[in-house]
Write a structure and sequence with these properties.
With 376 residues, this protein is mainly beta. It contains 3 helices and 23 strands. Strand 8 and strand 9 form a beta hairpin.
Length: 376
């Protein structure tokens, strides 16, 4: 029996464009915008002056400048917009107030993006693509908040504001900015675009005017920004952060957890966490030095640095029915690459060259972790 041929030429002509757009994979430039991955832990207290860095939700960096006395607890929260599909948010909870900000103070939550991931935006050409940012936000402190986009390669700025209208209510915000025809992003693995959400800012950052793309002016970063640190009752939540090409916001792009984790691991990967965890094999290179050469689950953005907790007998190397306790690893940077690390320990260990064994965190070492950091 002959089979008839199906003409598929016009099969999708009646499908709304919005439906087709929602099928574009990886349209969200932001990684971990749903705050579902938190390899470093779910809470960090006392974040204030001098505590800039990554603390809880992967790819979201707390940064601060100035002499602020304010402090926050950052956490991965389960408080999320109802019925939107989210399970986590990033929460900033003021624990030490600062009611009178110095001019040079600014606290921010930032996301750093590689230049090579931005080439399709055609920045710096006459065909530069507009960007649309959408996110869900909640705070008991209503008023004007600010967000800015910073081109790190060309020191260019675009700053905008949004308003939290109702206290302690999840609200969705959308901000669209025009494409920038000046200054292309470098096509490399370094920082290209920085997205920054402000929590507080002194007059050094608020005395100017919110601007479209142009040469960066510090006074234009956070014009109108409320002071989230003026009371220990204040808290701020964010989730569902999406940045995409175009002038409209599409539905948030949920990724499978394994895909989301792998994207985060390009920048930070934990080898082990917690007490009594086995985390690989090794051997005695000589009578007083053990080696461990883990291969990362995910190729790193760049050669990573070792991130670990050290302490008395926090790790053990088990070989020949003997446990050699040690305090931490050294990293051999000349033989560590984007795919594999070489770690050693030559303190308080003694064995026979060639003896093999396995590594384990201590029985009561609940805070132990070993990780690899290639963050921007």
């Amino acid at each position: 029996m002959a089979l008839s041929r199906i003409d598929t030429t016009n099969m999708i002509e009646d499908v709304p464009q919005s439906k087709l757009d929602n099928n574009i994979n990886f349209r969200n430039i932001i990684i971990n915008g749903d705050m579902s991955i938190a390899q470093r832990g779910t809470s960090e207290t006392g974040l204030g002056n001098g505590d800039g860095g990554y603390h809880t939700c992967d790819r979201w960096k707390f940064t601060e400048v100035g002499t602020a006395t304010a402090e926050f607890t950052q956490s991965q929260s389960t408080d999320v917009p109802s019925g939107q599909g989210f399970s986590s948010s990033l929460k900033m909870d003021c624990t030490t107030a600062d009611t009178s900000l110095a001019s040079n103070e600014i606290f921010r939550i930032q996301h750093h993006i590689e230049g090579q991931n931005l080439q399709y935006l055609k920045k710096g050409t006459s065909n530069a693509t507009s960007l649309t940012l959408s996110f869900w936000v909640k705070s008991n402190k209503t008023g004007i908040y600010t967000v800015y986009f910073y081109d790190n390669d060309n020191t260019r700025l675009n700053s905008k504001s949004y308003t939290i209208n109702s206290a302690s209510t999840w609200e969705k915000k959308t901000i669209t900015i025009a494409g920038d025809t000046t200054g292309a992003f470098d096509n490399n693995n370094d920082l290209g675009l920085l997205l920054s959400f402000q929590l507080l800012a002194g007059t050094d950052y608020t005395s100017g005017t919110l601007q479209d793309w142009g040469t960066s002016v510090t006074a234009n970063f956070a014009v109108g920004q409320v002071n989230l640190a003026d009371s220990t009752s204040n808290e701020w939540y964010i989730t569902g952060v999406q940045l995409e090409a175009g002038t409209t916001a599409s539905d948030f792009e949920f990724l499978p957890v394994d895909v989301n984790l792998k994207r985060c691991e390009r920048y930070y990967e934990t080898l082990t966490t917690g007490a009594q965890q086995n985390f690989g094999t090794g051997l005695y290179y000589n009578n007083g030095k053990i080696f461990h050469c883990p291969r990362y689950r995910t190729t790193k953005r760049a050669v990573p640095s070792l991130d670990q907790v050290t302490g008395t007998n926090i790790y053990s190397f088990f070989r020949n029915n003997t446990a050699d306790n040690f305090n931490g690893f050294d990293q051999l940077s000349n033989r560590t690459t984007e795919t594999c690390a070489e770690l050693d320990c030559d303190t308080n260990v003694s064995g026979t060259a060639g003896q093999a064994g396995f590594f384990r965190t201590g029985t009561s070492a609940t805070t132990a972790f070993v990780a690899f950091d290639a963050e921007l």
